[in-house]
Design a protein that fits this description.
mainly alpha; 4-stranded antiparallel beta sheet; two-stranded antiparallel ribbon; 61% helix; 6% strand
Length: 342
């Protein structure tokens, strides 16, 4: 079906409003529109029962910018519409189960109606004698112009390929083929677009999955790093604690070695001095002077007298000096009791 007018509206592309079909024939088809409408109605009648709904891909109600596929368009309704057009009474509405619907609200798929129009055209041409070498001029005139011609006109010669009627038919056929190719190309591009759109959706989903996985790996790596850092810190603290224990143990071992009576290298006076310091200061936990209110020399003198008899003055001085040095090493020489609690 060719020769659409400039004011034709396609909603969407590849569809045509029902009320524009007859106008297209009047402006672009080589047959009389009323004859073609009659033949198209007859062709539709051979397609299916009158009450059979047309496939919604081929004919559907279109309103408010969208298709309403809940209202079927039957073959009988289309036949009635084109029958009325063939009688010169183009209907403004078409009957449906929901009542009359404006013909302008019915969208027809071009490729489907064009196949039927081609069949109807062939029927009309055969009926008018276009397929014969010579025809009655009155019949030919009626088929082309729709007017009653006299039978007194001379017979028409065989139509050549350059005849205006043939050229017009060829032009109409070329237009139809161009529209069909454009529609097929659009369908192909639309399918390709849908495929690419689906691929993009899938790729986006994969990207989101990979991002989530990457984020999870980063969080796990950070967690492992913190745990490893905590472990290294704990290990370092343990090592420092062990080193401190080893140093204290070394001091204790030295003192223990000094206090061994069977150690031939341990001076007896040194062992005696250590014993004096331990007893007077309670193992270096109190200030001996503040504890008893007696000077160190006097306390040392009394302690030595109990252990070894009357000591020499120089021995008393040595012991008092050692005890004083130990008190200072523990934090100075306090003036009052510093016995540890607990």
């Amino acid at each position: 079906m060719a020769g659409a007018g400039e004011d034709e509206q396609l909603e969407p592309f590849g569809r045509i409003r029902l009320d524009r079909i007859y106008a297209d024939w009047a402006s672009g088809h080589h047959l009389n529109p009323r004859l073609l409408a009659s033949e198209l109605a007859a062709t539709l009648a051979t397609c299916s029962r009158l009450d059979q709904p047309v496939n919604t891909m081929h004919a559907c109600v279109f309103s408010d910018g969208r298709s309403d596929r809940t209202i079927p368009v039957t073959f009988g309704a289309l036949i009635d519409y084109f029958d009325a057009a063939s009688a010169g009474q183009q209907a403004l509405t078409i009957a449906t189960s929901s009542g009359p619907i404006p013909a302008a609200s019915i969208l027809i798929w071009r490729k489907w109606i064009e196949r039927l129009v081609d069949e109807a055209t062939e029927r009309a041409e055969m009926a008018a004698g276009f397929a014969q070498p010579a025809n009655d001029s009155g019949t030919l005139s009626l088929a082309i112009n729709g007017s009653a011609a006299t039978n007194l006109a001379p017979p028409l010669p065989h139509l050549s390929g350059s005849a205006p009627v043939i050229l017009k038919a060829q032009q109409a056929q070329l237009r139809r083929e161009g529209e069909n190719k454009a529609s097929e190309q659009l369908d192909k591009e639309r399918s390709e677009w849908e495929r690419e759109k689906q691929e993009n959706i899938e790729l986006k989903a994969q990207l989101l999955t990979e991002r989530a996985r990457s984020q999870q790996l980063m969080e796990e790596t950070e967690q492992y790093r913190r745990e490893a850092s905590d472990e290294r810190r704990a290990k370092r603290e343990i090592e420092e604690s062990l080193l401190s224990i080893e140093e204290k143990l070394e001091e204790a071992m030295v003192l223990a070695e000094i206090m061994r009576t069977d150690n031939e290298f341990s001076p007896p006076e040194l062992r005696l001095m250590v014993m004096c310091c331990r007893e007077l200061s309670h193992d270096c936990t109190v200030d001996a002077v503040a504890e008893k209110g007696i000077g160190l020399r006097e306390q040392v003198r009394r302690w030595l007298e109990k252990r070894v008899g009357k000591p020499a003055e120089i021995q008393i001085d040595r012991f008092a000096t050692a005890l004083t040095l130990l008190s200072r090493k523990k934090g100075g020489a306090p003036t009052r009791s510093t016995r540890k609690k607990g």
